[in-house]
Design goal:
The complex is a heterodimer of chains A (437) and B (158).
Chain A: E1 10-12, H1 22-26, E2 32-35, E3 38-41, H2 51-55, E4 61-63, E5 76-81, H3 95-105, E6 109-110, H4 113-130, E7 136-137, H5 142-151, H6 165-177, E8 184-190, H7 193-200, E9 212-215, H8 216-227, H9 240-243, H10 250-255, E10 260-264, H11 266-277, E11 286-290, H12 306-319, H13 355-371, H14 385-394, H15 403-422
Parallel strand pairs in A: 5-6, 5-8, 7-11, 8-9, 10-11
Antiparallel strand pairs in A: 1-4, 2-3
Chain B: E1 2-8, H1 17-28, H2 33-53, E2 56-63, E3 67-74, H3 82-85, H4 95-99, H5 107-113, E4 117-123, E5 127-135, H6 139-144
Antiparallel strand pairs in B: 1-2, 2-3, 3-5, 4-5
Helix pairs in contact in B: 1-2, 2-5
Classes of the chains: A alpha/beta (437), B alpha+beta (158).
Chain lengths: 437, 158
């Protein structure tokens, strides 16, 4: 079925998919349809939130990060571990040890995303001081940004116009630490599929400074096996403020503006954005929105339970020895904090480019939806009766895809057959009166 | 197309369903996001007012390529002093409603700001009918033409 596309990095293992309707029901953008017994993703609608990966009972939905073997294509390899990596291991292993383990794994250098997060937090606070009244929405979660592009385009101008910690870290490595170094490869160790897409296909075709994105899931085991024996070196540079970004509340605490909302889990993120679009949220300066439960520690490419990982992170924050004061000063001469291009509205929900035509289709859709059973059973392969109605007007489904509609048709046909059967040729017709069924 | 919704009174879980559905339809038509937001805010405010003050009512949305006409009608207590209600910060909502984040006295001013034409017909004890018109193409002038003659416009949005 569909593999990685310019839009997303969540994909389907057709051998494992049983064609059940679990993922259909959980997709926040109604981006999945079951066709020929397999759950297909509508590429342009997927926001990489990972909900389908989380809920699939067969493990058939997965993200497609780069393989570890990609390291071989580069001569000098820098790892940018997401702070959620630290939550995968218990307190026996210090951040220094985890980072030392990454060097043992084949990286030549590490630069913590948490360190970049501290710098981004500083710039965010600076931006909020100068910007007009809020609420401003963090643009660090790629799934949330995409969700806004598709479902809440009117809120695009509320996004904080800064690059994510991942991108910022990669830029620092390439522009400040190793400018022009041949064979340099920068790898993000990611908790989620969203970052894979963000690095491979950044908005508007700009290039990302990230050369590859590895799933934490894929480095976990080899890294875990190295940790006990590795020589621990003082590599940690990020303080508790940066580490905290991997869990919900961490980013807003780090930005430090009073009156912020922290929301995690795609359903509640949608609720907050809905309220914001309706003008219901006032007196709020900043919204930290994370698609995954508990924040990045709940990413589908992680190994540990999100809430266990979150507690581990909190413990690490309490023990972090790098003073917070260092967070303010960025690397000498680096100022490239802005995003590469503002994310644009995506009109995937539009029925037709021509308004008049779209209106006819929308009307037709309402009438069709009215006639469907409204059970949202998913047997037709669409998540709801209404989305089946939408697929019908778009021409990708037919009314008899609904098993109830199909049964109605069969019943009508049976009635017609029955009445036909009763008709007799004139010579055999013994009944009085006019002929006919 | 015409969409009709029944808005139950006092039910905050359902409040916003009508405006939410209208928002979705406008997105399917490819209406400009800024306009969708204006429609959402204006209609949501009117819907919430019916939920809080009027014991519910009905909402209809008449959408053409040129304009959206949103009518919210209830048979609640009516608005005793419309001029006062149009002032920012004026509210008759009880404390428990304010604690829910509603009733800040921004409802009617917000509605006015976010519609091209707003008309409010209200009679004490008999109910209120709010008509919100938004031009979807051709600017506010096109919207003005859509106002029913009987409804006295409350005045143009600034």
């Amino acid at each position: 079925m569909n593999g990685p596309s310019v839009f997303h990095s969540v994909t389907l293992d057709p051998d494992k998919c049983r064609g059940c309707t679990t993922c259909l029901k959980h997709c926040p953008t109604e981006a999945i349809r079951v066709r020929k017994g397999k759950a297909r993703i509508l590429d342009e609608r997927c926001v990489d939130c990972g909900e389908c990966i989380r809920v699939c009972p067969s493990g058939a939905k997965r993200a497609v990060p780069d393989p570890l073997s990609l390291l071989k294509s580069f001569r000098y390899r820098v790892a940018i571990p997401a702070p959620s990596l630290y939550g995968q291991f218990d307190g026996r292993f210090s951040v220094d040890r985890i980072l030392s383990g990454l060097l043992a794994l084949g990286f030549d250098e590490v630069f913590e995303a948490a360190r970049a997060a501290e710098l981004v937090a500083e710039r965010t606070a600076e931006f909020l001081r100068g910007a007009g009244p809020g609420p401003w929405i963090s643009s660090s979660c790629p799934a949330v940004v995409k969700l806004i592009q598709i479902r809440f385009p009117s809120l695009l101008d509320r996004l904080v116009p800064l690059a994510s910690p991942m991108e910022t870290a990669a830029r620092i490595v390439k522009e400040v630490l190793h400018p022009g170094r041949p064979g340099l490869g920068v790898f993000f160790l990611s908790p989620c599929a969203g970052k894979v897409t963000a690095a491979r296909h950044p908005p508007e075709g700009r290039r990302s400074a990230v050369d590859g994105v590895l799933g934490i899931r894929d480095v976990y085991l080899p890294l875990r096996n190295l940790l006990s024996g590795v020589e621990e070196r003082p590599l940690a540079r990020a303080g508790y403020r940066g580490i905290a970004w991997a869990r919900v509340d961490g980013e807003s605490d780090s930005v430090g503006v009073p009156g912020s909302i922290s929301v995690d889990g795609i359903a509640d993120v949608i609720g907050v954005l809905e309220a914001l679009e309706n003008g219901k949220i006032r007196d709020v300066a900043f919204i930290e929105a994370m698609a995954c439960p508990a924040g990045c520690v709940g990413g589908p490419l992680t190994v540990e339970n999100p809430y266990i990982a979150k507690t581990r992170l909190r413990n690490r924050e309490a023990r972090a020895t790098v003073p917070a004061e260092r967070a303010g000063a960025g690397p000498e001469g680096f100022s490239n904090y802005g995003w590469s291009a503002p994310p644009a509205a995506r009109t995937v929900l539009r029925l037709d480019p021509d308004v008049a035509r779209a209106l006819v289709m929308a009307e037709e859709m309402e009438i069709l939806a009215e006639g469907l059973p409204g059970l949202d059973c998913g047997s037709c392969g669409a998540p709801t009766c209404r989305s089946l109605a939408e697929d019908i007007v778009r021409g990708t489904a037919v009314e008899t895809d609904c098993i109830f509609k199909l049964r109605e048709r069969v019943r009508d046909l049976a009635a017609e057959l029955f009445s036909l059967e009763r008709m007799q040729p004139p010579g055999l017709d013994t009944e009085e009166g006019p002929r006919g069924p | 197309m015409v969409l009709t919704f029944s808005v139950p009174g006092g039910d905050f879980n359902q409040a916003g369903r009508a405006s939410g559905e209208v928002k979705k339809v406008l997105a399917r038509l490819g209406v400009d996001p800024g306009l969708i937001k204006r429609a959402a805010v204006a209609m949501y405010e009117a819907e919430i007012n019916m939920v809080i003050h009027a014991g519910g009512g009905t909402a209809t949305a008449d959408i053409s390529p040129e304009r959206a006409v949103l009518v919210l009608e209830d048979s609640g207590p009516g608005i005793p002093d419309l001029d006062l209600a149009m002032q920012e910060g004026y509210s008759t909502a009880p404390e428990w409603i304010r604690e829910l984040g509603f009733g800040a006295g921004m409802g009617l001013p917000n509605m006015k700001r976010n519609s091209d034409e707003l008309s409010i017909e209200t009679a004490p004890g008999r109910g209120t009918r709010v008509t919100i018109v938004l031009a979807l193409s051709g600017g506010p002038a096109a919207a003005a033409a859509a106002l029913p003659a009987a409804a006295a416009p409350e005045g143009k949005a600034p």
